[in-house]
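ok here's MAP1A protein, seq below lol
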Amino acid sequence: MPEDELSRSSHSNPGKSLANGIKTNPASSSPKSNLSVPMGPPVYVDLAYIPNHCSGKNTDPEFFKRVRASYYVVSGNDAANGEPSRAVLDALLEGKSQWGENLQVTLIPTHDTEVTREWYQQTHEKQQELNIMVLASSSTVVMQDESFPACKIEF
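and the structure came out like this:
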């Protein structure tokens, strides 16, 4: 659209403007609406790492509705920062309950934390109902001066 037509269209339609070729209404815009992701079909993957060390800052039920994995890795081990977040683990249950298909899901915590233990015990029945298995491992990898729990995953 030529610049003079763009100018005329904004004058004839007060309160609306074009942003990237799309009509917008600045009065109804909010910072959250600019960040929203358009809805689309779910994405199926073999393995997904739960973002931000399983912190509640970036992950909600919508993540689990849209990113459908056979395996989810939970790496949080910082209780002071809410990692892993109980809300995110609960979001997995909520999101998976809306899949409409009962695919097997394996949750792989990289650390044995109080949060994951309590969540596992308190929601075990729901996990079974949703076909979610929590993988526990007593294996330990030792590298130089550091050791950490490990899980073997085969595809």
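fwiw The two ends are 52 Å apart (CA to CA). kinda neat tbh
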